[in-house]
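Can't attach files on this board, so I'm pasting raw text. These are the components:
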Amino acid sequence: MSPQSAPTDRTRLRRMSHKAAHDKATVHAILDAGPVAHVGYIVNGAPHVTPTLQWREGDRVFWHGSAASRFLRVIEGTQACLTVTLTDGLVLARSGFEHSISYRSVLLFGTVQIVSDPAEKEARLKAMMDQMFPGRWPQLRPMTTQDLKATTILTMEVDEASAKISAEMPDDPPEDRNWPIWAGIVPVITTLGPPQPAPDCVPGMALPVVTFGG
Amino acid sequence: MSPQSAPTDRTRLRRMSHKAAHDKATVHAILDAGPVAHVGYIVNGAPHVTPTLQWREGDRVFWHGSAASRFLRVIEGTQACLTVTLTDGLVLARSGFEHSISYRSVLLFGTVQIVSDPAEKEARLKAMMDQMFPGRWPQLRPMTTQDLKATTILTMEVDEASAKISAEMPDDPPEDRNWPIWAGIVPVITTLGPPQPAPDCVPGMALPVVTFGG
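---
Top answer:
Structure tokens for the assembled complex are below.
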């Protein structure tokens, strides 16, 4: 991991295969596979990183929070960085130095905007629900004016997007490869468990379709 | 999710059970269960959020990167926010508004410090490896002076730490509870898959012990 790290001279060539990708298809695929994002803002001069759900429509990402949050109001118009990271595996090498993580990440940089039109807000929330729980929206208790008022929807004019993908087997230098220790990848897998109904769930309801993580 | 969001008046009471915890034991347990962190810095006046592995020793957290990274050098002495989030489930309610995420998160705020003494750097890296892969360190090709030089280890004097835990069933208001739709929690589960040996792995090596996620 550590996408911020430039390779050292020694590792520059061997690590070229850690793809830095800026093409839209790669960025979009990672965003769609990772609904959980970490958004960094500057609040009172200091960085502030909060987890949130993001969803994408075309080139835009959206996230949301409570309209009662002073926090969300003060960050309108400021710069933000929205990061999505998918951890795919642990890469075990022959030296501590060569251990790494198999991951996919996207960093989006841009300016925070707030979606204020109620009809547009409802359309954006429907899009989020349609992506995570296809078919559920029309069955829900419909949104109320109060629901929409109480929800702040944020989006970003993306100035810069970058993706990183690291998915290789350990790349120990040749002189280390016969070191007598297991080397390879231990996959990290995210799955959904069996749905647990609420104690007051109406009996006989069909289970939801969930595509969390696309 | 949206730990930044204060509850609205309407939901204030019902949501009191979303615990905001600041006690050390809770903060430590979440950090230990979530090695993947997102660290926010201010770089050239804008927020920058990067994924990294963190590990804890006592009250301190550490993370690391490449010494060749200019990025890591310029953030020494600046404020940072290190966030760990564990996504435990999707909370499906009767309205879109009440849908939420079951999660545990920690935000640490503080000033970035760099560990520069080589012996201390090696001790910190050993601590990270011992936590993730117990027993592996003594079997590895030993660290070299060059390995240590090429690795930057960062830590934080923590000024403020806060944890949030949200683990409830959907809390629709009473008038919505008979809405005819499934409601409950769909767990999100992170597990380790079967180890995949590198093509050039020495045959017959014992599989590693991995405690990723504590």
